[in-house]
TrEMBL record:
It holds the Pfam family Thioredoxin_4. SUPFAM superfamilies: Thioredoxin-like (SSF52833). Gene3D superfamilies: 1.10.40.110, Glutaredoxin. It comes from Pelagimonas phthalicica. This is Disulfide bond formation protein D. Signal peptide: none annotated. The gene is bdbD_1. Residues 53-219 form the Thioredoxin-like fold domain.
Length: 223
């Protein structure tokens, strides 16, 4: 099972306009505020070279896996709680493959989560991602936008970040615009239509069990 992705242009506008940046206003502030300038962003016009690719494992391995996932996708959370853990132990931590995580943005909550996950750099990204996927049923269903915002802030603090650092990341409009454009460019190029999806050595695959993943990787590794 997978989550279907909305047309990229439509989801980008939905994310950056019409109150998508409520989180930056704080849980105690009613209403919502659009991010200035972001709603008019066109991916082709935005320089995305500043976006850091989140990679673990062996970047020089013969087999490279790119996962496209949303922090609010239940199937992505299930993948990370099950298949990913086995992949990490058997293929990523052993250096057999390189593994890149790329965010897909279904909604504003997934974007907020992405901003928190990236807030303290690559060193903490996968640890925070693990916390978010494991606790998705709690923070993503906390209720109001303010409650979800506070749950994400809590994850940031549990990861060792100060409140000021978290707020600075969440109010970084330039980074938001860049991430939306980066998502659009990647998802268009790799023809991503659902999550989780995987690009393995340039070939697109849908979600699969660990047994199927293992068989595929072993074939590509010549094992």
């Amino acid at each position: 099972m997978m989550n279907k992705i909305l047309p990229i242009g439509a989801v980008a506008l939905a994310l950056v306009a019409g109150g998508a940046w409520y989180m930056t206003q704080g849980a105690s502030t009613p209403g919502s505020t659009a991010l200035p300038g972001a709603a008019n962003a066109q991916s082709a016009d935005v320089d995305t070279s500043s976006v850091i690719e989140m990679v673990e494992g062996n970047p020089d391995a013969a087999v490279q896996v790119i996962e496209y996932a949303s922090f609010t996708c239940p199937h992505c959370a299930s993948f990370h709680e099950n298949t990913y853990k086995q992949l990490k132990a058997d293929y990523i931590d052993t250096g057999k493959i390189g593994f890149t995580f790329r965010e897909v943005y279904f909604d504003k909550f997934g974007m907020w989560a992405s901003m928190i996950a990236r807030c303290d750099g690559p060193e903490k990204f996968f640890g925070i991602t693990d916390m978010m996927m494991k606790g998705q049923s709690t923070w993503a269903r906390a209720g109001s936008e303010g409650a979800i915002a506070d749950e994400l802030r809590k994850i940031g603090r549990l990861a060792g970040m100060e409140s000021e650092q978290i707020e600075a990341c969440l109010t970084d409009g330039d980074k938001l615009q860049t991430l939306v454009a980066w998502y659009q460019q990647n998802a268009t190029k790799d023809e991503i239509r659902s999550t989780p999806s995987f690009v393995i050595n340039g070939e697109l695959y849908s979600n699969m069990s660990y047994a199927d993943f293992k068989a595929l990787l072993d074939e590509k590794l010549g094992e």
